[in-house]
Amino acid sequence: MVIASIADQIFRTVEGVSDTLTAPFSEPVIRLGVTGLSRAGKTVFITSLVANLMDRGRMPQLHAAASGAIQTAYLQPQPDDTLPRFPFEAHLDALTSATPYWPEGTRAISELRLSLRLQPSGLLGGISGPRTVHIDIVDYPGEWLLDLALLDQSYDAWSADALARAPKRPGGQDYVALLAGLDPAAPLREEEAQVLSERYTEYLRKSREAGFSDCSPGRFLMPGDLAGSPVLTFAPLPAANAPRGSLAREFERRFESYKRNIVKPFFRDHFAKIDRQIVLVDVLGAIHAGPAALDDLRNAMAGILGAFRVGRNDFLTRIFQGRRVEKILFAATKADHLHHSQHPQLTAITQALLREAKDRADFAGAQTAAMSIAALRTTVEDQVTHEGNTLDVVRGRLLESGKQAAFYPGDLPQDPAQLLSPARAGEDKWLNADYSIMRFAPAPLTRKPGDGPPHIRLDKAAQFLLGDRL
Where are the domains of the chain? Predict the structure, then answer.
């Protein structure tokens, strides 16, 4: 096993060196990773980004689009034949039909290649002529990133952390109560193992629905064709001096198998090859869920971003150390749920929420930024009078009823500490405010020729992530 592991590493190092050496003589490729936890808007972001790069009328802050340097954009077959293709056309049809609806969210990894034909500016551009830049967009569930933190944990350490969190979350007390009469050192009974795994998965699902972010192992909630397999049939147990053949020892073995067969291949084959990354964060949803959910999001993001190999992708670095993530954008989604007057507060809260992880990335040489975006704008801004006061609101079509409604979520604080401090202190609810949230349906679109779907700052996000390479 050790020799095979070393051989695999040598092969991949040689493969990486070969790619690096041939890159200057081939068409450049940008591998853009798109991730975020459940309901952060990954699918809509990718769909709108590609649509707006193909029809660039709403992309004035993307310099290559505004200057006319992008002559055309077109989809091509993706380079990895083993990955599902991101179903761009089906998702765009869902968002732009006469009765638009939200497409199904990310359930597994997928990929899409968008190629841009560019005319370089200046004297060199006139001599060299047009060039092509490929953007390989890799979509994967953010829950899978949470699993990368498991690589450095033993089964006992993971169990201790998981059981310490459980009583404070919905469904967690039920799982802990299930363990009360259990002997981890008893011989393994498969039906008992399955019940424990199912009940733990049920607890994770309830926690996610309540707004909590760190619900690992991620494949428990998105098992795919692994549902019911032994690699997903384990759960945290109290520490015990358990003999071979016991429940605890078998769960430990399956935990290590999960890391070896599920987590490591994802990191090696997909995650480690990304050089630009956007992390979509549903900050508004976490604020609405309460202080505990917001602090859990902060911890989850720190764990996720700790998995990135960040730094500059200069020539020698890529030869000797492999590809690094050189740009990371932290994007607070659903900015269209707020009047633009509150967007600076949302961005400031996002920056404060991710401060520790962002500082580590900056120190390692990566470029980072935070902004508030809406990949698809679903509302219009308005003002209403309430009890003699004028309120800045947004107006849109409610997802559940289809009725038009004006929405005022409450004033986000100018100082992010007013939210982060009670979150870190473990408060049960916000002391001096109540933050609401509504679910809006996509609005029917009327687009001029050459316009992509309406958005908020998608062009600014694209400029940060891709502009230097275009």
Answer: 2-140+270-378+445-469, 152-265
Structure tokens at 230: 């032994």
**Cα atoms found within 13 Å of the Cα of residue 395, Cβ hemisphere only:** 10
What pTM did the predictor assign?
0.85
Q: Alpha-carbon distance 231 to 257, whole Å?
A: 6
Element (H, E) at 112: strand 110-118
pLDDT digit string (tens) for 256-292? 999 999 998 888 877 778 889 898 989 999 998 899 9
Tokens of 215: 């619900």
Whole-number pLDDT of residue 274: 85
Backbone angles phi, psi at 210, to 5 degrees: -85, 0
pLDDT reading at 232 higher than 90: yes
3-class secondary-structure state, position 333: coil
SS3 per residue for 363-418? HCCCEEEEEECECCCCCEEEEEEECCEEEEEEEEEECCCCCEEEECCCCCCCCCHH
Whether 208 and 38 have beta carbons less than 8 Å apart is answered as yes
CATH of domain 2-140+270-378+445-469: 3.40.50.300
In the chain the first and final C-alpha atoms are separated, in Å, by 44
Residue 273 CB partners (closer than 8 Å, separation 6+): 31, 323
Side chain identity at residue 391, one-letter code: L
What's the mean pLDDT when you consider all of the chain? Answer: 85
Q: Specify whether the CB–CB gap between 214 and 296 falls below 8 A.
A: yes
Q: Which helix (H) or strand (E) holds 76?
A: strand 70-76
Q: How far apart are CA 209 and CA 170, in angstroms?
A: 9
In this structure, the number of other CB atoms found within 10 A of the CB of residue 100 comes to 19
> Minimal CA–CA distance to 377: which of 281, 298, 443, 311?
443
Between CA 32 and CA 274 the distance in angstroms is 6
Separation between Cα atoms, residue 214 and residue 298, nearest integer Å: 10
Q: How far apart are CA 398 and CA 241, in angstroms?
A: 55
Residue 283 CA to residue 379 CA, distance in Å, equals 18
Write the DSSP symbol of residue 45.
H
Cis status, amide bond into 217, omega within 30 of 0: yes
